[in-house]
Amino acid sequence: MLIVLAFIILFHVAAIALLFVATIHNAWWVVSPPGGNVAYSDLWYFCNATCYPVEKSHTADAAYLQAVQATMILATILCCISFFVFILQLFRLKQGERFIFTAIIQLFSALCVMIAASVYTAQKDTFHVGNLKNGSYGSSYILAWISFPVTLISGLMYLVLRKRK
Fold first, then answer.
1. Which of 10, 87, 116, 137 could form a Cys-Cys staple with 141, CB 3.0–4.6 A?
2. pTM
């Protein structure tokens, strides 16, 4: 049972790490012009030689970008909260009970990641105008999509998991 518990904790920590990297790292969109410098764009900044805020990110025109920002941050926060709730329930639950509250929070985290990545995918033409249209998805975008099944599987594991001796 200790091995299963260690695996579940490591799986959850991996989900948290994926969410943090996907939210913070500046590689949601990568532009590689021929013979030019590679430019990166994330949810907040566009960086080539220097970094500056995404154009019009504070206006109503960028509501989609703000939705992606909010749901990625919410997913990361919910994943961290579910980890702490799991640790608390590990010591507080009676033998034979399930980790339902932890599972619900983790499944909400998975839902938030899916919403963020889906909105970014559907609205990429709204985010990237001009020279940025010739880019491709970056590593943070891919990590966001990878973190969705990881958090979903983690939440489902908590639904199945019972506290044992």
1. 137
2. 0.88
Query: pLDDT digit string (tens) for 60-106?
Result: 767 888 899 999 999 999 999 999 999 998 888 888 788 899 999 99
From first CA to last CA, the distance across the chain in angstroms is 8
Report how far residue 158's alpha carbon sits from residue 160's, in angstroms, rounded to the nearest whole number.
5
The candidate with the shortest Cα–Cα distance to 24, out of 102, 138, 152, 132, is 138
Q: What is the DSSP letter of 54?
A: P
State how far the alpha carbon of 4 is from the alpha carbons of 8, 55, 158, in Å: 6, 47, 12
The pair phi, psi for residue 51, each rounded to 5°, is: -105, 140
HSE (side-chain half, CA atoms, 13 Å) at 105: 17
Q: Please count the CA atoms within 13 angstroms of the CA of 151 that sit on its side-chain side.
A: 34
